[in-house]
# Entry
Amino acid sequence: MNALQLFLPCAAGVEDLLADEVHRLTGLAGNDLLVGRGGVVVQASWRDALRLNLHSRLSQRVLVQLSHTPYRSEADLYEAAAAVAWEIWFTPRQTFKVEITAQHSPLKSLNFATLKVKDAVVDRFRNKFGVRPSIETQWPDVRLYAHLTATHCTLYIDTSGEPLFKRGWREDKGDAPLKETLAAAMIAASGWDATVPLYDPCCGSGTIAIEAAQVACRIAPGLLRRFGFEKLLPYQAHVWSDLKGEAQAMARPAEVTVYGSDVAFRMVDFANRNAQRAGVEGVVQFRGGDALQRMPPCEQPGLMLVNPPYGERIETAGVAGRTQGGRVRAAPGAGREHAQTEEAGDFFVQLASHWKKNYAGWTAWVLTPDLKLPSRMRLKESRRMPMWNGPIECRLFRFDMVAGSARQREAGDSRAP
Ligand SMILES: C[S@@+](CC[C@H](N)C(=O)[O-])C[C@H]1O[C@@H](n2cnc3c(N)ncnc32)[C@H](O)[C@@H]1O
# Structure
């Protein structure tokens, strides 16, 4: 019986991909699977909730909706939270935490609103059992969420615990790691079906390549971690262990190799260690090297998925960028930002001409906040998809590297003024 209403939040731009994933994992469709803003709403069973935690690569969490009521004041929030049967989900001996998100809420202080929801939960337990649960903000047993719009308050209990992008294998990371959920969204958007090679030439700690390698091996993303639902009252160890057993039985050897390289050898080291923890060290190959110089890692053309360096978060390095040692090469008289922009510009122009010359037949998908990247690279994209990397608005561009385009383009370029 699909007795629960679940909300699965995801990065903006990823909602349709997540709905496809949920459909594939649960078979749910129609009114049981609705695409919302920033996530999908699912009518599902408790078992589905556990399965989604274990298998979803795109969702940030799996929340169970427990109430949806109109509100105008903090007192209304108190009433709404006091009416929820929290005792079905946890006991007063467990710690909990309340988090509030809001869009166009008329309330002045979200801190005060949080306090009112927390008081209502505590009071409900105290009235029923004479004991109150404690608050724990860092490592709570149970997480409650309230989402406020201009008119309505929705209350959820979280079944995931730590957010789902934390798969449990990425202990080593660089300066601008991509969330695993977003790396998975790039893979899903590209339509990669694990039958052609995949290559990330700016791989950092290996997130995209490792996610792809797990997809190729059908390794469930949640097998290495714990979940919030393990501390909730409906949890039954045998149900969970069945689901994990089914997931383990699905794993199989990959048909292709996944490749990654990075100009920073420290990153290659990190990527290798992460791949080992993720159980895919036999499927991925990481190497050091400048993306502007590395030739295709294999003969068969495949797919490149790239989250390149960009000024705001991380600088380009290698032949077009900073010094090989990673120190900033100060341009006399030039501001740091000015130098960065110019060098990043160079990097992308050179990357495009390297790809045009040497990667004929490959398809490249590039995630960037630079909405003008195609014209900067003098490449025409064949797809552009909006995707948010946290607060940063990005596009995922697809470029098809057609054989012969380099020569035509160079001829065109030489005619340019
Ligand atoms: C935004 S980070 C990628 C992060 C990666 N997706 C992860 O999750 O860890 C960009 C990466 O590009 C690398 N990089 C910078 N210039 C490069 C170049 N010329 N060739 C190859 N990699 C480069 C940096 O060392 C950094 O690891």
